[in-house]
Structures are given as structure tokens and as C-alpha cells.
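Bug #77: duplicate submission created two jobs. Keeping one. Sequence:
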Amino acid sequence: MAVHENPAVSLSQGIRMMFYVMTPNETAFRNEEEVPDYVQQATPLFIGMLVLEFLLSWVKNGRAAIRVNDGITSLSAGVLSRLPGLLELPWDSPWTWWLTFLGVDFGYYWVHRLSHEVNIMWAAHQVHHSSEDYNLTTALRQSLTQQYASWLFYLPMALLVPPSVFAVHLQFNLLYQFWIHTELVSNLGPVELVMNTPSHHRVHHGRNSYCIDKNYAGTLIIWDRIFGTFAPEREKVIYGLTHPINTFEVLWVQFQHYVHIWNTLWDTPGITNKLSVIFKGPGWGPGKPRLGLPEELPEITGKEVPHNPSIPVALQAYVMLQFLLMLGIYHEMFATKAILSQITLLLRIGYITLTLTCFGFLIDQRPDAAIWESIRCLTFLAFHRFGYVKMVFASLAIPTEMLFLLCTVYWGSLSRQAVAKAKHH
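Kept job's structure:
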């Protein structure tokens, strides 16, 4: 089986693709296999812009824009989300490029809108809205399951658009939305009339009454203006879900609303009502309109405080260090994915998922966090010894093993203390 290498993106292209400033000539490909994995190659740019946002926020506001607990949860969700026609327009025509740009953005508007108006789709999309902060890490707080429904809305394009052109715009549409997740950019003047901007998207992430179900745009805000879902930014935006979940456990962030739907389904009488629980809005109930009653939403005063439990500085530093080590394993997995066996790939995905889960346990300071973290450290030592997990730089192998050995001893000691305390009570 032929292995297709991922074409490299230059630094200039990398910077420009983040703002959708790429030309048709340099992004026109005959075959889908030739399309670079732009999103994956944007990882260094994501990190660079995160650091830049952190520094600018510190200089401008005297405080960091990113909290460790919320930021790590957002980044964890992003990592998790990335784990593994009849008539066709000419692939090399600029007209095809621009028509696909409009088609993908129009399709995204409806994918996004229905992800708010259909409960089972909201179960996936709510992951992205669960952050009570608004910064570049929020952009990476992506759903593990949303991809399994969104393709339906792009099916009509398969009749006309070459897959290679579609693959380009699907990624650029996603990348464009990264930089608009910031509070550091206020108003962009005339640009606000046509393009989706940080100001417009801040409204979309708000739980204020004027923000609910507004500004679904991906790249162009014109769709919201046309279909009556546009709202300008007014008073201070309070971010997050209308009913905050108050946890940083990444798997619970991903799946908690599915659990809510399941419980509601069993508690709701009648087959018609049960189907409505799934396919009507998240605020629907028997006797209510399709999208629920706005007056039932919690009142926003502007004084709401994000869920932010106190975490020792040492624990924050530990989680950040372990996240960086995990990021190295994540990057190495994608770099060598084409030559990895299925069992190795499965075990690496399993280890990364376990790691991200443990981060949430540690940040939430669950009573069993030490037990899970000691299990994770032991798992790393075993996987690393047998070659199922590798570091990006071979020179770090021995120091990393020593670090994880010490961590296993430390967390194992805390685990024994926790078990002994539980038995005593």
C-alpha cells in the first residue's frame, strides 16, 4: 500500500493560512492526497499565538488571559478531537476555489445553527461552549463526536466540488475561527459588516439573553445577517453554558450532555415526546416551543464568576509539564502514523486519552486522582519500555523514565494514604 507523505507548509503559508490569506494557485490540488494536513501543521502556530496572547494580556491587563485549569481542559479537548460527485467543477479553476469557499461557509452556518437547535447535535457542540473563559485555548476545545454528523450538511457539494478543493476549504474554515477566540481584539470597523470577527464571536459564546442562539458564522457574518440570527456586541459578555458544568474532567466535558439526554429520555413519557427530547432544542420540554422558553434561562447579572477552584502552584506546574510531555508523544504519533501498527496506534491513543482524563482528575482534585495518576505513570513506564510510546527526542528517553518512576512512587504513596484514610472512615 502506497504511503502518502504530508506535504510541508512553509512558515509564510503557515501564518497566512491562519487568516485565510492563501491564494487559489498555491492551494489548488488535483487529488485529495496532495492536500496538506493544514490543521495538524498549524500546531506550532497554535502554541505561538497562545504564548503571544498570554504575554499581550499580561502587558495589557496585568494578568494572564488563560487559566491553567480551563486552558488545559480546552487544549485536552482539542487533542482528543484530533485522534485518529456526479458533476465536478475543474479542480484548478479560481471559480471553483471561490465557489467552494462560499459553499463550505454556507454549509458551516447550517451545521453550526442546527448544532444549537437539535439536542443530540448540541450534545456534541456544547463541549466548545463549556469554557467560561474566552481565549485561544477555547478555540481548541473541540468535540470528539461532532464530526460524525456535520458531513451530512456538505453532501450536496459532493455533486460538484472536487474532493481536493473541498478538503482545502474545510480546513481553512476551521483555522480562520481560531484567531477570533480572543478578547484582545475589540472592533475591526468595516470588516465587521462582512467577516466574522472576535466581537461577533464573543456574542456567540455568551450566555447573556441577547447572545443566545446568535452569530453562527464561520468566516462570513453575512449568513447571520441574511437569516436573522445576527446580534452586535453590547454589554459585557458572560461566557459558557447557561447551566455551567463546573468540572475540568475532559471526558465528562465531552459526554455529560449525552448522559443528560439519556436520563431525560427515560423520564419523559410518550414516544413522540421522547423523539422530541432528541431532535428538538436543548431547552425543549412537553408543552414548550421547539427551542424552549427564553424566560426559563438563568438571569445574567454580569457579576458571575467562573468555576475556578484553588489549585496549588506545584500541582499546576506538574500538570503543565506532563501536558508538554504528552504533546510530544501526540506529535510523534502523527509524524509516524503511516508506519505504526494498529495495536501500537491503539495503545498510544489509549494512553493519551488516559493522560488527558487524569489531568482533569488532578485539576478537579478528585479523591481518587492520585490512584489514577499512579496507574498512568506505570502505564507510561510499561509502554515506553516495550516501544509502544516514544518521545520526540531520543535523548529524553532515560530522563523521562526517571521522572515517571519518581512520579509513580510519589502518587503511589498518596494513593496508599487515600486508601488507608477511606478504610479508617
